[in-house]
Amino acid sequence: MAGYGYRLKIEKGSSIYWLPITFTIENNDWHVRENKVSYAFSHGGTDISDQKIEGRIITLRGFVYVTNNNRADFLAVLDEFQRNLYQRDYKLYLDLYYLNITKCISVNIDYIKGQNYNQTEVKAELYAGDPFWYHSVPDIINYTSVSDNSIGTIENGGSVEAYPIIYITANQVLPFLQIQNTSDVPEGANEGLKFTFISNSFQTGNTLVVDCQEGTVKIGETNNIRYFSGAFLKLLSGFNNLKFSLSPGCTVNVQIKFTKRRL
Predict the structure, then answer these.
(1) Helices H, strands E: what count in the chain?
(2) pLDDT exceeds cutoff 50 at 3
(3) How many angstroms separate the CA atoms of 182 and 59, rounded?
């Protein structure tokens, strides 16, 4: 997946470590969960899995070396490499995307003959409990003066669904708000998923924040989940049409923030 044109790096908090330029991602496979039940007294079976992606194992391979043939310098470089891989819960970056690494599973060190133990080929396996690659820059879409029955179109350029954070600022007292993704129609349903927020406390200038990833609904620091009903929305890969329904005569400003994800 990575060639010498792209250099891998590890970030944890404010700490950044660039892997040696020779390192590449050798394995970036992913797998869907399996849960199969055999038919009783018959051939075959049925798949009852939820179609979710398993955590993935990433394999890195490359060389750790020094050019001055100094054993102490080589050990310092190798120790720094292993120390950074051995951390828990860090980001592995490839170009503009990163993977959330849970932990390092293994490191295999193979010294190269004739190099006086100053050069080694390394194979490392990293486990990512969250299997998706995330874009490092979130997409932000703004709609101003949205009125009742307005339609907005958002493109999710990732290969899988994304869960947005939706910021709604009331320009008047807003007793009724509904947002529907008309593109996301569940199997067996005849309309797209939607949520409704009904509250006389949604005052002029208030900003309602609906975090569809974390499942929270707040105005400021106040939990307003009791006024919320319906589904936390997701943005399908590709184009999504959002329908806004408001109290008559009211308008809102809406910002939608999401992070593209890839397999």
Answers:
(1) 1, 23
(2) no
(3) 40
